[in-house]
Amino acid sequence: MRLLCFLTGLLSIKLAYFFPTFCICSRSQSDTCIDGLCLCESRIADCSQHCRGNQSLRYVPALPSNIMSLDFRCNNLHSIDNEDFFENATHITTLDLTKNKLVRIHPRAFLPLTGLSVLTLEGNDLLRYEDLRTVFGISTLEKLHMTYCNIGRFSQDVFVDLSMPHVQVLDLEGNQLERINLSRFSSQTLLKNIDLHDNRLVHVSVEAVLHVERIDVGTNSLYEFLKTCNEDGLSLFPELRSLDVSDNRIGVMPESLCLPKLEVLILSGNVLHSIENIFNGLNFPSLTELRLTGPRDACYEVMNNTFTNLPVIEMISLTNQFLFQSNLFCSAFTDCPKLSKLDLSSGGFTFPVCPTASKTRACENITFLQMWDSEIKQIPEKNFLNCFTKLTHLDLSLNQITSIPDGAFDGLMHLQWLGLDYNQIQVVSPNTFSALTLQRFEKLWLNNNPFHCSCELLWFQVLLKENPWYISYVEDYKCSNMPDTQVVQFEVAEQPCMLSKSASIVIINTLTIVVVALIIVSAVFRCRWHLRLLLYEAFRGRGETRRQLLLHGNFEFDVFVSYDSNDSLWVRIHLMPELEDRLGLRLCLHERDFIPGRDIVDNIA
């Protein structure tokens, strides 16, 4: 279910990217007002097309005096030809003209709106240059949302001589701008937020000091980081607190930066050649949050002191292809005393060993650790997680973990949230989590694992049936060996479960040893004479006497005759005369020639 929520959110983001604005009516039809032409709620009048049954409204009706915000989206106005178009709404402060296919705006159309502070013109991509100049001349505006209006198609600099002295937010997302000079906004002394996200920017120039607090130039084509220092080494952005340059093509960072108040830096999705000697207290003295997602085709090795002397840093995100040397994990974050959140998701990761005590100081304050989708296959019994003594949240979901060592998380005395969902875990033993660890949990995710439902999992079935507060999505705990069966539903016979797995293993091993021993004893007994002969040959038949006999050929007999007692008569009458008398051989017969008291083997030899 957590993955479903994640995918749902991702889908909404993708839809918003390709279809920036939706004309959707979110108000009840019972709120009709102004002779049924609009829907009113509190101080808002929604006169958009979709709140009117898809019927366009080409004029502004007389609004009640309490209405301060007019939603006039998607009415297919095409043009505002009269300077008195808004004469029935002169008191409003907020106006939304999104998706009206405007091609013309009368130069004096907004003059009656003496209190207008927020204007949205999103998706009107047919406006003329003159219309833009009209909009940029509304002196009362505090917030201007002019996204996806295709401003980049004009060769003229539309931002020359802006006349919006009170503007604080300027949203120019998705306008296909290729170049922009931020110095054009230096005269807007109250401007705090500039959004240039999702344009086609290849160059952003800065010549004068800007007192903005937030700049977003993400999802463009910038090859260089923004210029932040002037010729005297002073900051061009002395008040900047948030900077988003994600998803560009930046390969090299400047050696020195002048961003004294920057708190949030988003560098994700660039192609940095190196991340060494960049993130330190000299360049970022006020940085609290750093997002540094790497591209899929790159690989960064995080070395010792990569992130050093960042006195107020609280959160670092290093997702996608960041590799740590096992003995340098914590020492990569030196002198970062406030670092509490660390995101290492979506990259190849192997659990390093726990470093020495002197190297764990950078990790001792981390409370939130995220490593989902990091290709983790196992959790060693002794691993670096135990270095995070204050850890409260740990996410290891979407990995390839097959088993959990007993007590692997018992050393994390403050752990409250643990995500192990969407792995390959088949069995959770009663010793995986101690009773104290289970009591500490506020959330435990083990759902969507291929559990092997057997006697070993009965204790876990009982736990799920008790439905503790910290376990959610019980219906997503399913048996991989029993199709369409949930863990809370499977049944096994009692008799096979009377013995534990360890006891069964001991019994099977013992019986195996006994059977093998019996087979060996039986084989030795049946081949005892052969073995005695082999032993004799090995220890007695190769002595000095035998060696001398073989060397000089001084043998008492030529042939030893072995025969059954039933054949003794034939041996005396037929064999002996033939071999001894006629052929002259010396025969050795046990009845005649053996020396009493000696071993049979010795007599034969």
From TrEMBL:
Localization per record: Membrane
Ranges for domain TIR: 555-605
Domain of life of the source: Eukaryota
Annotated GO CC locations: plasma membrane
InterPro entries for this protein: Cys-rich_flank_reg_C, Leu-rich_rpt, Leu-rich_rpt_typical-subtyp, LRR_dom_sf, TIR_dom, Toll_tir_struct_dom_sf
Main location (coarse class): membrane
Annotated GO MF terms: signaling receptor activity
Gene3D superfamilies linked to this entry: Ribonuclease Inhibitor, Toll/interleukin-1 receptor homology (TIR) domain
Gene Ontology biological-process annotations: signal transduction
Keywords attached to this entry: Glycoprotein, Leucine-rich repeat, Membrane, Receptor, Repeat, Signal, Transmembrane, Transmembrane helix
UniProt entry tagged with the keyword Transcription regulation: no
Topology within the bilayer: Single-pass type I membrane protein
Transmembrane region(s): 505-525
One Pfam family from the record: LRR_1
Signal peptide: 1-18
Family: Belongs to the Toll-like receptor family.
Protein name, per record: Toll-like receptor 21
Naturally occurring in which organism (per UniProt): Littorina littorea (Common periwinkle)
